[in-house]
Amino acid sequence: MERSFDREVEGRAASLFSQIPEYASNAAETGRIVEALLSIAASPEIGAVLPDAGREVSEIYGAIAASDPERLEAATLRLYARIHELGEAYSADERSRLRGSVGYICYAGGLSPVLRAGPFIRSGTTSIDLGAGNGLQGLLLQLLYPHRRTIQVELSGSLIDVGRRLQALMRIDPERVEWRRQDIAEAAVHEADFVYLYRPARPVDGGRKVYEAIAGQLNTHVPGVVVFSVADCLGPFLSEEFRVFFTDGHLTCFRKAARPTGSG
Question: Most buried residue among 25, 42, 80, 264 by CB atoms closer than 10 A?
């Protein structure tokens, strides 16, 4: 039987994260993430493929018991990274398609983009994660900021299978998440108001075509769209309508100017 965590863990974790300056304004959300990660790790199914996850779970509880915020942060980030990498990655055919687009295997983008996204996701938002892997990042966005739809675009069928299991463990409404098994160059990016990606391809040869395809939709459609690009390579392909409103060398955030009412 899967274990359900009560709100005490979430509250105590949030209280500790509030003592770390970079998390202070998002302490409640970070506490919710801790609870979600612990719930996932408690599943026997997940425990079987993450045999060392128990060490991180014990470390999280130990940090909470010791009221040690730095220790809690380190253990939480380690568990997040371990869960993010769950899955059988890519088949031979899928790897061949990745090579054709000079694509990268999915990497963990970190909690910073998730926590920073809150002000830009509302109840009617459609978000999209391009190269979602097992979808943890998009699932966390939906968990923290429930919105109309999260589109998870991923080439690997096995990673999508893992993602669906994570979604169930996180108790996220199936109707709020749509999994699309496809090349991100073919994704309907224009359907989204909020776009997340972590450098899915090298911006050369076939990879350049990937960015041109994504930017082509963003430049033509979706006025007011917000783009969170980790290890950004998309920026040079975006039109002058886009402005950088935040960057820290890891995450670069763009917003497209909304068109005046009545414009064509």
Answer: 80
In the numeric block, which tokens belong to residue 125? 């938002």
- CA proximity to 254, closest of 233, 215, 225, 231: 225
Summarize pLDDT for 122-148 with one digit per residue, the tens. 999 999 999 999 999 999 999 999 999
127 neighbors 192 (Cβ within 8 angstroms): yes
Instruction: Tell me how far apart the alpha carbons of residues 166 and 181 are, in angstroms, rounded to a whole number.
Output: 17
Of the CA atoms within 13 Å of residue 191, those in its CB half-sphere come to 15
Cβ(194)–Cβ(126) under 8 Å? yes
- Please, are residues 59 and 65 in contact by the beta-carbon 8 Å criterion? no
In which region does residue 262 sit, left (phi positive, over 0), alpha (psi from -120 to 50) or beta (all else)?
Answer: left
**pTM for this model (two decimals):** 0.90
Domain range list for the chain: 7-84, 92-256
> Helix (H, G, I), strand (E, B), or coil: what is residue 256?
strand
* pLDDT tens readout for residues 28-72: 999 999 999 999 998 888 877 887 788 899 999 999 999 999 999
